Amino acid sequence: MGDALQQSSQSLPRFIKESLKQILEEYDSRQIFYFLCLNLAFTFVELFYGVWTNSLGLISDGFHMLFDCSALVMGLFAALMTRWKATRIFSYGYGRVEILSGFINGLFLMVIAFFVFMESVARLVDPPDIDTNMLTPRHSHGVSRGGCHSHDHSHSHHGHSHSDHGHSHGHSHGTSGGGMNTNMRGVFLHVLADTLGSVGVIVSTIFIQQFGWLIADPLCSLFIATLIFLSVIPLLKDACQVLLLRIPPEQEKDLHAALEKIQKIEGVISYRDPHFWCHSASVVAGTIHVQVVSDVMEQRIVQQVTAILKDAGVNNLTVQVEKEAYFQHMSGLSTGFQDVLAMTQQLESMKYYKDGTYIM
Amino acid sequence: MLSDSFHMLSDVMALVVALVAVRFAQRTRATKKNTFGWVRAEVMGALVNAVFLTALCFTILLEAIERFTEPHEIQQPLVVIGVGVAGLIINLLGLCLFNHHGVGGHGHSHGHGHSHSGRQHPRSGPKPEQPPGDGEAALHREETSTLVENCSSSNGVSQEKLGDMKDDMADLQVNGNAGHYPLDVEEVEEDSSAQLNMRGVFLHVFGDALGSVIVVVNALLFYGLWNPCPKDGPCFNPCVNNHCMENATLSQTLGRANKSEQESITEAGPCWLLYLDPILCLMMVCILLYTTYPLLRESALILLQTVPKQIDVHSLNSKLRTLEGVEAVHELHIWQLAGSRIIGTAHIKCPDPSTYMMVAKRIKEIFHDEGIHATTIQPEFASVGSESGRGKCEFPCRTQCALKQCCGTGEDSTAKKTEKSSSLSISCSEVVIEFPKTRRTKSESIPSVKLEANTDQNEQFESSL
């Protein structure tokens, strides 16, 4: 990041202005930004009011919202960073920041769910008195705010209307416009958790006021905690898979078929160390070492391998072509060459015999 | 005390996360789905722990702020002191264990984390230490062990293979300049991913220990200095509830009126004691955040696949470019898989395959000197295929394959690719199929000296094309 700042060689205010401009250009980041502003305004109002009337509930809720705002800030910053150009230190670009921020948002949500769960358990065991009058207006504010935003969000993403459940299956199949990327999912789930929290408080308040079931409060919290937890799990799982450098699941079959095709290329003896991973929403990278017979043009092999793998969806590929002469030069420096050397010698002798034009 | 038990619970969760990460990270074998194995699990474990710590700091901060607005007295200071000291002892024990493990782990060659619960003794590593003079063999050992093992071998079997390989090493002439690695540097580097994970756990236990210290200090001071309200007799507490100030003035006026009754009205003890707890909590939060931030940053940078901080990519790039025979270097990516396993890829443009043969060894050496052992170098040649003005990559495909071939055009290729790809691939393979027929006639002249064959091939192709 320091590298990017150095590259731009701008002072801090200009950097902020430029970032703001970039934020407002893109639809995703614009949404997060507006919601962040709304949230911040509400937070300060609440804090101010709480300090003025010296109400503990309002102050603590204000700080809770501040914590939420920090998660939103992280999401916004990640959406901004994705568009920065690649530098020497971040050689693939900053696209992966989205996934990391989605992951961290998911972790924060898990922590929140955990604490709500613990609190509700504590309240089940030892129920305190609740003053229901203060709660309703504040939480209806919260619900309207959250409902507004999630409504917008769900309509913006091409009919993925998931306003009830957080299970947005917005996998981007190579392009980022098709569904929600991980960062937006994280922010969306955060907002959803907020909304659910407020909804739960309202519902339980109604229950208490109408029926006098004091147990409604912890039960609602328990229910909401489990909902949040369950909705976060898909997000965490997806982000984990990308961060652990797993083959992107949508392209797994294609990749295996492509590897078999590579084996059948004329001149290819074997391949070794195929590694493919999803770098960010739009970049799938890979490396592979290919062992070839000595009398073949490396360029041709590289071409063919790249073409096959590009069809399978890998758009950032490095192919190392190894011939037997290569091994003898590389003897100190490449790994496992002994086995491959033996294999190539064996296979080459077999190949000559199969062709029938040579003497073995 | 309820909140303290929650903190201990989160401590348990941190240990569980670290344990799961360590278990996963032992599967270094590549699977069909995870081509690198699960090696990164430790870095993820460290990140998860760091994030949990940060979240914990936030909650402690919230509680401290609550305490500021509504200070509580501690009801039974002696009990709190007892529980606090017990918690502190347990945490100090954990600290000693993890501190020893995190810093002094020498025998680990695969970076396994050993203390699976806080109570086991750290064991020495599974592989015996090799004498430091055997730098060459150590290099090979590190190579085979740093890369992901593709064959199905457990640790025991791979040790046998290492033994075989070392014997073969002695016979062959080794061209590479392999003797640069002191053994302890290797081992410290190899440990670093496990170290990250253990650091996460250590910081968590450290935070808990700080919490216990604060609880004990607070309770001690409270016990010593606080004048509690006696159960009988009128008493008012000036520290709690601002709207009781009217009562205070009322009682003062009463007191002035009836001086004889002043002694019976007692005041609760010094108010600043009540604010000590939140202040100490704030200090603890600051210390924790300050120590957690480096861990968070390091694991995040590894996961983002940045260039590791010990490698100067600028100088590496210039070293590569100044090699003779190298015309250009692009798509240079260097990133850290986990711990000491650094992976590098590059596309090197050379004039022809024979120069590439000579240059490839030196390129690999340069990478090895920096500690990057898993490299993939893609050669590109300018002389074969005469379209040298075409962008950065030189793939001599005569038809419109060029759109598909080059690196880095991933974004716009996805849309166009789907329509053109099927037809294009056929045309490319058609072009290619012609070659083998011409190649076979030249087959008798396949000599044992490879360089000549290559130059023959080049000439032959240029003429036929």
UniProtKB/TrEMBL annotation, chain A:
Coiled coil: none annotated. The keyword Metal-binding applies. One of its GO terms (biological process) is zinc ion import into Golgi lumen. Pfam families: Cation_efflux. It is found in: Cytoplasmic vesicle, COPII-coated vesicle membrane; Cytoplasmic vesicle, Secretory vesicle membrane; Golgi apparatus, Golgi stack membrane; Golgi apparatus, trans-Golgi network membrane. It catalyses: Zn(2+)(in) + 2 H(+)(out) = Zn(2+)(out) + 2 H(+)(in). It is a multi-pass membrane protein. Its main location: membrane. Residues 32-244 form the Cation efflux protein transmembrane domain. One of its GO terms (molecular function) is zinc ion transmembrane transporter activity. Signal peptide: none annotated. It comes from the Eukaryota. Gene3D superfamilies: Cation efflux protein transmembrane domain. The chain crosses the membrane at residues 32-51, 63-82, 94-118, 187-208, 215-236. GO terms for cellular component: ER to Golgi transport vesicle membrane; Golgi cisterna membrane. Belongs to the cation diffusion facilitator (CDF) transporter (TC 2.A.4) family. SLC30A subfamily. PANTHER family: PROTON-COUPLED ZINC ANTIPORTER SLC30A5 (PTHR45755:SF1), PTHR45755. NCBIfam families: CDF. Heterodimer with SLC30A6/ZNT6; form a functional zinc ion transmembrane transporter. This is Zinc transporter. It comes from Buteo japonicus. The lineage of its organism: Eukaryota, Metazoa, Chordata, Craniata, Vertebrata.
From TrEMBL, chain B:
InterPro entries: Cation_efflux (IPR002524), Cation_efflux_CTD (IPR027470), Cation_efflux_TM (IPR058533), Cation_efflux_TMD_sf (IPR027469). It comes from Buteo japonicus. It is found in: Membrane. This is Solute carrier family 30 member 1. It is a multi-pass membrane protein. Belongs to the cation diffusion facilitator (CDF) transporter (TC 2.A.4) family. SLC30A subfamily. GO terms for cellular component: endoplasmic reticulum; Golgi apparatus; membrane. Residues 308-380 form the Cation efflux protein cytoplasmic domain.
